[in-house]
Amino acid sequence: MSTERRKPYPFDRIESKWQQFWDQNATFHALNPGEPGFDASRPKYYVLDMFPYPSGAGLHVGHPEGYTATDILSRFKRMCGFNVLHPMGWDAFGLPAEQYAIKTGQHPAVTTARNVDMFRGQLKRIGFAYDWQREINTTDPKYFRWTQSIFLKLYNSWFNPATNRAESIASYTGEDPDSVRLAYVAEVPVNWCNALGTVLANEEVIDGKSEVGGHPVERRPMRQWMLRITAYADRLINELDGLDWPESIKLLQRNWIGRSEGAEVTFGIQGSNHNVRVFTTRPDTLFGATYLVLAPEHALVDEITTPENKAAVAAYQENCRSKSDLERTELAKDKTGVPTGAFAINPVNGQQIPVWIADYVLTGYGTGAIMAVPAHDTRDFEFATKFQLPVLQVVQPPTEETWQGFTGEGTAVNSGFLDGLSTSDAKRKMAEWLETNGHGKKTIQYKLRDWLFSRQRYWGEPFPIIWENGKHRALTDSELPLTPPEMDDFRPTGTPEPPLSKAKDWLRYSETATRETNTMPQWAGSCWYYLRYCDPLNNERFIGSDVERYWMGADSPTPKPGGVDLYVGGTEHAVLHLLYARFWHKVLFDLGQVSTPEPFQRLVNQGIILGEDGQKMSKSRGNVVNPDDVIAACGADAFRCYEMFMGPLEQMKPWSTAGVEGVSRFLARVWRLAMDENQAGEWTRSAALADIAPDKAQTKVIHATIKKVGEDIETLSFNTAIAQMMVFVNTFTGASPRPLCAIRTLLQLLNPFAPHITEELWEQLGFEGIIADQTWPTYDPAALIEDELELVVQINGKLRDKLTVNRNATTAEIEAAALASPRAVEWTAGKTIRKVIVVPGKLVNIVV
RNA sequence: GCCGAAGUGGCGGAAUGGCAGACGCGCUAGACUCAAAAUCUGGUAUCCGUAAGGGUGUGUGGGUUCGAGUCCCACCUUCGGCACCA
């Protein structure tokens, strides 16, 4: 006797069978325009997953959540007659692979290839309908050749403020083209992480620590490659409006870009011809400026500091320099600073105000200098209180509030020509005054910094750049791909010098020229991968233009801005990948390389799946669920359906083993609708199946299910779609004889969710072809209408009785029937009926 | 501190302003069985009541409405993001 629990249906046998079938027949291969057999009359649907980083740990249950959602949609759209593009690939450059390689001594290419094989195998065992002929890998020279090529497009372009778009550098008529390129070299204060041996982008630093590994990060000036994303700040904000993205993600991007309107004001320095420019969002408070603060790193500090203050200023500067970012932010509760001894002249009233330095003014934002208006700015108020600087009211709050530290809007006071004006009017008037008198102008500032694009790593795309006589220049496209050198020792050098600098042969380009030794960050490959899927084998271009226009939807008749039709992934990329990719896409759009301004039309974030204990899954908690185990126990179809049945896609939700078993039972019930088990334990076609028409009630369930499942798939409400199919199955479980056509319809509706079992039953029941190639069923609205309706009778809004009326009953008839219903009579006895509300088809409410 | 999202049975969750708790899990009773598993059928918010029935219920307090889980105002809690951005 076997101790192993008997399988509720033979999923293990049928799942591998159909996975092989789809593979061998390339069932889900999508043809490109121009290829034989391509049907141009069909609309296109491009549904994209965020491709995984193939880590050594393998797939976890979080990956397939989004992947199953897109798989259901792509199979559904295919059945609805669309040409569907649904690809998968590998984002395989990156730190973990390199660190693992350093630890084990294996080349990252070797471990990466192994991990990719593991991931691919796992994804295939879940039965995803990917077009595997379009698989890409960012570490493949045939791929990163084009990543390098696109980098060169950025290098060879500049942002023309007159046209508000990128143009070829050839159209730039200024002195120094290198100062305007979209990819440029600059000596900037960067986030240096000593433990990782590399610099990091602002987006990769969380609370002063590296996002990868949580190591301390310090600021230091270094010469680095930068991408001029700030040129696109406005467009990156404005063009969010047309996108079908979660509002929360749009907001995260807007806040990250951090646009603020204000004015620049120029202050003279007493007894010197230096000027200090400050940025303020409140030019209306200029009369209230009682001191000026420069960032400790401000270039003018040394020039204006008076001799008697030099020592204190230098000490303060040194102190700030040695502070880590963490110390500067975490311990920032207390304001610090020192006076320079210099005085600035307020242009609006000629008043002399002291100039201080303090680290609450940041060097990277605005002009690195502020005018302090302690009466109406919290930070200035704290600083002024601590150092006993004067506080002068210039805004009258609209209510009884105290004006001290009031930062809202009100009425200007003590402000000369602004007195009596509202804050917004005063802002406008002051900006005009500044401009007319040459003391400043309206400006816009952004929190967004240019993108630090170089890393001191081995496992990344080398820059297609060479250096000669201290100048950089681009490789030609024909010299690509530039592959990394074969190296035995690719560890960081322990200095800011990248590991590639150790590859002396590779480094040497010619007698007088050497190669750039930095590599690109992991984000480079993912900035454009969705384009390569459209045309993965193209050797001439990164994407063919006809193919691009078709799959990205430039020619589609819908009024949408185009792009990928549905993109599903986690929120962790809100200000990283999703911002970077939009930026690259816009550059390519400006340069005429792609035809749509935005890459991703509709974005959906799947929620995190927690462990069974309601905690975040982690190895240390021991609550990690491995998809392979679930599939071995219950099958891929149950795994897919359970992930979709858990709850709304976008919501965070805990895993439940009992829940998987419940869904597995549902699939077993579907199986038994079609199959009987004989004495020998073999499954044969169910004897209850018959070529009969469903009865009226059954017909209604069939059509209601067709309607609901179709609508729910479009809105990604998979949990309720499955619930409705459960209702369907519950309806037919007890039915004998059982109408064959009903089972046929159920299989079609269930196919996108549970592709293996439905394909197998389709074959077992002898239906034509394979189910994946069938057309999605349509429903008959007439079948949903019943002759008799059940109406609710309410007294004062409370349910008191129910009533069955003919669907053609008039309002008057319904009202009369309701008033005559036994319980209504009871409840209204001896009372005056004030009002009767009849909602046709729904209820009657009697107000007494 | 600022911004955002969410609070519904024992649990996951469902509900165009119109019967709160669909569907599933769990629990429970019954059928089948020598017995168990599996399967099938029924029950399952809570309080009062033998029952019929009634009261109370969607984080808290107000409001709009014939009618509020749903809309408005205030607050509480949890989660996520930003964090001296002038």
Structure report:
- This protein has 848 residues and is of the alpha/beta class.
- It is built from 26 helices and 36 strands.
- 33% of the residues lie in helices and 19% in strands.
- Helix 21 (696-714) runs antiparallel to helix 22 and helix 21 (696-714) runs parallel beside helix 23 (740-750).
TL;DR?
The protein has 848 residues and is an alpha/beta fold. It contains 26 helices and 36 strands.
Low-confidence stretches: none
Number of strand segments: 36
Radius of gyration over C-alpha positions, nearest whole angstrom: 34 Å
Fraction of residues in H or I helices: 25-40%
Structural class: alpha/beta
Quick one: biggest sheet?
7 strands, mixed
- Shape designation: globular
Mean pLDDT: 91
Bin the strand percentage.
Answer: 15-25%
- End-to-end Cα distance, whole Å, is 70 Å
Given the structure, what is the number of helices?
A: 26
Can you give keywords for this protein?
alpha/beta, 848 residues, RNA-binding, seven-stranded mixed sheet, four-stranded parallel sheet, globular
SSE map:
Elements: H1 11-25, E1 44-49, H2 62-79, E2 83-85, E3 89-90, H3 95-104, H4 108-125, E4 136-137, H5 141-155, E5 157-160, E6 165-168, E7 183-193, E8 198-200, E9 205-206, E10 209-210, E11 218-227, H6 233-238, H7 247-257, E12 260-269, E13 275-280, E14 291-294, H8 301-304, H9 310-322, H10 325-330, E15 338-345, E16 352-357, E17 369-372, H11 378-387, E18 395-396, E19 411-412, H12 423-436, E20 440-445, E21 451-452, E22 465-468, E23 471-474, H13 504-507, E24 513-515, H14 523-526, H15 529-532, H16 545-551, E25 566-569, H17 577-590, E26 603-605, E27 609-610, H18 627-634, H19 636-645, E28 653-654, H20 657-674, E29 675-677, E30 683-685, E31 689-690, H21 696-714, H22 718-733, E32 738-739, H23 740-750, H24 755-764, E33 788-795, E34 798-806, H25 811-820, H26 822-828, E35 835-839, E36 843-847
Parallel strand pairs: 1-2, 1-25, 3-4, 14-16, 25-26, 27-28, 31-32, 33-36
Antiparallel strand pairs: 5-6, 7-8, 7-11, 9-10, 11-21, 12-13, 12-15, 12-20, 14-17, 15-16, 18-19, 22-23, 22-24, 29-30, 33-34, 35-36
The protein binds one RNA strand of 86 nucleotides through helix 7, strand 13, strand 17, helix 11 and strand 28.
